[in-house]
Design goal:
Elements: E1 2-7, E2 13-17, H1 22-28, E3 39-44, H2 48-59, E4 63-66, E5 76-81, E6 89-90, H3 92-95, H4 105-112, E7 114-118, H5 131-139, E8 143-147, E9 150-154, E10 164-166, H6 172-182, E11 188-192, H7 198-209, E12 213-215, E13 221-225, E14 233-236, H8 241-253, E15 257-261, H9 269-277, E16 281-284, E17 288-292, E18 301-303, H10 315-322, E19 328-332, H11 343-348, E20 352-356, E21 359-363, E22 372-374, H12 378-390, E23 394-398, H13 401-404, H14 410-416, E24 420-425
Parallel strand pairs: 2-15, 3-14, 6-7, 10-11, 18-19, 22-23
Antiparallel strand pairs: 1-23, 1-24, 3-5, 4-5, 7-9, 8-9, 11-13, 12-13, 15-17, 16-17, 19-21, 20-21
Helix pairs in contact: 1-7, 4-6, 5-6, 6-7, 8-10, 8-12, 10-12
Length: 427
């Protein structure tokens, strides 16, 4: 099993490319199931989750072809063609590995009139039910039943009717699923209290490029007029705002200066605001965003919330960064109830973090010390990488398969800007 070895203490400096967004890619790929024409996605990150989702699309009858990109290049171009769906079932052995697999439910139902999908897996960061996905699909005409760990959805008469649904709480995944289902409905649909994340905007823009009719993109009310069919398209995946935020924290915790090439400040404003509150300088450049930390970090108070608030996917990285701040920071996690599993691992490196329910008090320390640590989920693994970059001595991060789900060739990117980091195999 692979490990990441880091010898900390180096100041990071230079240009670091930001890959296509994992969360956007896994939402755009199932759009290919909505048409019999090819969908070509550019800037697709090379990630385990992307490969896994490709296997799921193959299981349903779609072909996936990678254009001839060089191994040393970041990103890929993938063409997906679902000329005919050979299956409407997403099986447990694939879905259990990746929560995003539930996103085939809406498009398969809309295209084939029925879909059977196993309950999903993914990171063990708390209760993540799919009831909002199901209620939204019911509101636009689906009939549902659950049995033996599977959800079976049917569109009476072979096509969804459309309808109106207001989410009681904001849900990114459920918004994505119902939007993909509604674009092929007979009638119109109105989705209220919809998620507004940049990845939702990316999804809607891709669907529009395929012939969908969606109004209100970027707002919390989406109006969708169903069409008879969609066509193929070529679309570029947006830059990964969470990856960009993670490397911004890497610059801050090492007192470094990184230009995040391809990052879009407008997609990560809450992260930038929090960095500035901690004393980090963040400026736009013609190629991306420049992050500079030339003085001590200060404490901040952060509460996670749906977009445009501070992203829950950035909480663990900020915790690691704030371990080196002067004073006490307060982090409040409002999205998931079990997202502090990285705290005991940070404590092994000398961090002083006290958790009280959903609130964590982070007292800055003078030094972090390298230690063997274990990743517990995707973003937690990045928090340990960040701590290792600033720690004295060597840090060994195990279970990095979590990391490979969301960060494209991390050690190569960090090595290029001055980190002493490598991947090692126990074998």
């Amino acid at each position: 099993m692979d490990r990441i070895l880091i010898r900390g203490g180096n100041r990071l400096s230079g240009r670091l490319p930001i890959s296509g967004a994992k969360n956007a890619a896994l939402t755009l790929m199932p759009c290919a199931l909505l048409t019999d024409e090819p969908l070509t996605l550019r800037n697709l990150p090379r990630l385990a989750d992307v490969d896994g989702f490709g296997h799921l699309l193959n299981q349903l009858g779609a072909s996936t072809a990678i254009e001839g990109t060089r191994p040393e290049d970041f990103g890929r171009v993938m063409t997906i063609r679902a000329g005919k769906l050979t299956s409407t079932e997403a099986p447990y052995d694939i879905v259990r590995k990746m929560r995003a697999s539930i996103l085939v439910l809406g498009p398969v139902l809309a295209r084939a009139g029925e879909a059977t999908v196993s309950l999903p897996g993914g990171c063990a960061i708390g209760n993540r039910p799919i009831d909002l996905h199901l209620k939204a699909l019911e509101a636009i005409g689906a009939e549902l039943e659950m049995a033996a760990g599977y959800v079976k959805a049917v569109a009476p008469g072979g096509r969804l009717s459309g309808g109106r649904y207001r989410f009681p709480v904001v849900s990114v995944g459920a918004t994505e699923n119902v939007v993909m289902a509604a674009v092929l409905a007979r009638g119109s649909s109105v989705i209220e209290n919809a998620a507004r994340e940049p990845e939702i905007v990316d999804l809607c823009n891709c669907l529009v490029a395929m012939g969908a009719r969606i109004a209100g993109i970027g707002t919390d009310t989406l109006e969708i007029e169903g069409v008879d069919r969609l066509h193929g398209a070529t679309y570029a995946v947006m830059a990964d705002r969470i990856e960009a935020g993670s490397y911004a924290c890497a610059a801050a915790i090492t007192g470094g200066s990184l230009e995040l090439v391809g990052a879009h400040a407008g997609d990560m404003q809450a992260t930038i605001d929090a960095l500035r509150s901690a004393g980090v300088t963040v400026t736009d450049t013609k190629d991306g965003v420049l992050v500079e930390a030339d003085g001590p970090l200060g404490p901040v108070d952060i509460s996670t919330s749906p977009y445009p608030g501070f992203a829950t996917d950035m909480q663990a990285q900020f915790m690691a960064m704030l371990c080196k701040a002067t004073g006490t920071s307060v982090l409040t996690e409002t999205i998931f109830e079990n997202r502090y599993m990285h705290v005991p691992e940070l404590a092994r490196m000398g961090a002083d973090v006290q958790v009280h329910g959903r609130t964590a008090l982070v007292k800055g320390v003078d030094r972090l010390v390298g230690a063997p640590v274990m990743a517990t989920d995707l973003r937690a693994s990045m928090s340990l990488i960040l701590a290792g970059l600033a720690a004295e001595g060597e840090t060994s991060v195990s279970r990095v398969y979590h990391l490979d789900r969301g960060y494209e060739r991390l050690e190569e990117k960090l090595s290029a800007v001055g980190a002493d980091i490598e991947r090692a195999s126990d074998g």
